[in-house]
């Protein structure tokens, strides 16, 4: 007699009972992964600034930080803040985010163009360098001077126009030049222009060189506080004595400067998950102390006229999202996007746990119970047989019982259901005895 097969669990029945539900859940999760709040893109376009500028240098640092999370940041060169602003706002442009100097737009215009701010990053003081024995104490003394403010894309010209206006000067009363930073510095050294106006971070090589060049003087904004009251996007900062070179005492006194800030501006279509990632990178890049800012002063939700995105505000108040503190960016993003479905699945777990086990039990027991129909048909055939046919019918049904028993002995069934299998075998013997007694 063939050996009866026993197992601890019926793999086939378990797959039939649990499989459709599992496949359905996987299908729903996969559909949700692409439909419900799509995942952020892995490639972004960043508008920085001129070659070798502070904007370009910082953009490369952002690219390195984002690369750690498998995100590629494509850096695009530009003339500066104004061009960056236009590119980000342009619906036909592929630029997602970039550096914009505070004061480059208004809150109303930013809202109309769908721009959002992720916060301010660092001070970009207005540096006004000039030559001459006489010290200039007011911008009104620049009347008739040859002044370089850089190309229109820099954003310095717009700001300088505002400074002239509050000093009752028109742009026509000075000779404006629009050379880029490096050729403008060369022209200034060669005395082809009288005044050099720049807006740059303190680590600019050109600024540090000019601060140490004999005969070059830095304009001291003695009315700095008044300027910041007239223009809220400006800050009053101080260039401390000796900060450039303490041994040579450069500068030889404190200088008061006015400063816009570089802000991180994006289009409102930027994926919310990337906002926190950019700000974490900004904290590493801009969080240390420098000539004008204290440790931890930047990034900040202040000093920007463009509305700070709510997700960024949460970062400034609470730090990175909880999951991003302990998991990789992509894993935390997946869980954040899927939480609604995970909660819904959790709510379904209880009813599913009551439905699936009985289905599994039914599947296992049905492999035993279906043979009782065969036994019943054997008895029915014997009962319906006439006395003349009874012997022949009984022999046929005995052969049939042997076939049934052989097949039953091949059943693979979990040990927990062995009682039903032995019951079936005993019932087969019962029917066999009844058939034999009727012969």
Q: Could you describe the 3D structure shown?
A:
With 439 residues, the protein is an alpha/beta fold. The protein is 47% helix and 15% strand. The strands form four sheets. A five-stranded mixed β-sheet has the order 3-2-4-13-5, sandwiched between helices. Strands 8-7-9-6-10 form a five-stranded mixed β-sheet, with helices on one face. The chain has a two-stranded parallel ribbon with strand order 1-14. Helix 2 (54-67) packs across helix 9.
Major sheet details: 5 strands, mixed
Give the overall form: rod-shaped
The secondary-structure class comes to: alpha/beta
Strand content: 15-25%
Number of helices: 13
Give a brief description.
The protein has 439 residues and is α/β, with parallel strands linked by helices. It contains 13 helices and 14 strands.
């Amino acid at each position: 007699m063939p050996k009866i097969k026993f197992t601890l669990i019926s793999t086939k029945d378990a797959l039939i009972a649990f499989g459709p539900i599992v496949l359905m859940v996987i299908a729903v999760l996969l559909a949700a992964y692409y439909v419900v709040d799509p995942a952020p893109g892995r490639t972004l376009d960043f508008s920085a600034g001129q070659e070798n500028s502070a904007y370009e240098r910082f953009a490369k640092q952002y690219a390195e930080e984002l690369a750690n999370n498998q995100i590629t940041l494509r850096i695009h060169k530009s003339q500066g803040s104004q061009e960056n602003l236009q590119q980000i706002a342009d619906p036909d442009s592929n630029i997602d985010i970039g550096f914009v100097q505070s004061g480059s737009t208004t809150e109303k215009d930013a809202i109309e163009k769908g721009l959002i701010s992720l916060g301010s990053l660092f001070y970009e003081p207005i540096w006004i360098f000039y030559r001459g024995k006489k010290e200039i104490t007011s911008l009104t003394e620049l009347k008739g001077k040859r002044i370089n403010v850089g190309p229109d894309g820099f954003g310095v010209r717009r700001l300088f126009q505002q400074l002239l206006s509050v000093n009752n000067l028109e742009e026509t009363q000075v000779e404006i030049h629009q050379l880029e930073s490096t050729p403008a510095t060369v022209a200034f050294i060669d005395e082809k222009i009288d005044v050099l106006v720049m807006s740059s971070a303190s680590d600019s090589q050109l600024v540090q060189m000019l601060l140490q060049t004999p005969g070059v003087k830095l304009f001291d904004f003695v009315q700095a506080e008044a300027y910041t009251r007239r223009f809220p996007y400006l800050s009053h900062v101080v260039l401390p004595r000796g900060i450039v070179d303490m041994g040579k005492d450069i500068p030889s006194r404190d200088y008061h400067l006015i400063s816009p800030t570089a802000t991180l501006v994006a289009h409102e279509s930027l994926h919310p998950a990337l906002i926190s990632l950019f700000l974490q990178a900004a904290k590493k890049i801009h969080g240390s102390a420098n000539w004008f800012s204290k440790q931890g002063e930047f990034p900040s939700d202040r000093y920007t006229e463009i509305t700070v995105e709510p997700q960024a505000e949460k970062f400034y108040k609470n730090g990175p999202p909880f999951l991003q503190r302990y998991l990789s960016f992509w894993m935390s993003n997946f869980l954040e996007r899927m939480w609604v479905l995970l909660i819904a699945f959790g709510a379904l777990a209880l009813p599913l746990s009551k439905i699936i086990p009985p289905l599994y039990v039914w599947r296992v027991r049905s492999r035993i119970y279906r043979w009782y129909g065969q036994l019943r048909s054997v008895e029915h055939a014997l009962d319906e047989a006439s006395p003349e046919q009874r012997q022949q019918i009984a022999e046929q049904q005995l052969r049939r019982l042997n076939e049934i028993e052989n097949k039953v002995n091949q059943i693979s069934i979990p040990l927990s259901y062995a009682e039903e299998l032995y019951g079936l075998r005993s019932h087969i013997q019962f029917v066999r005895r009844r058939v034999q007694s009727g012969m």
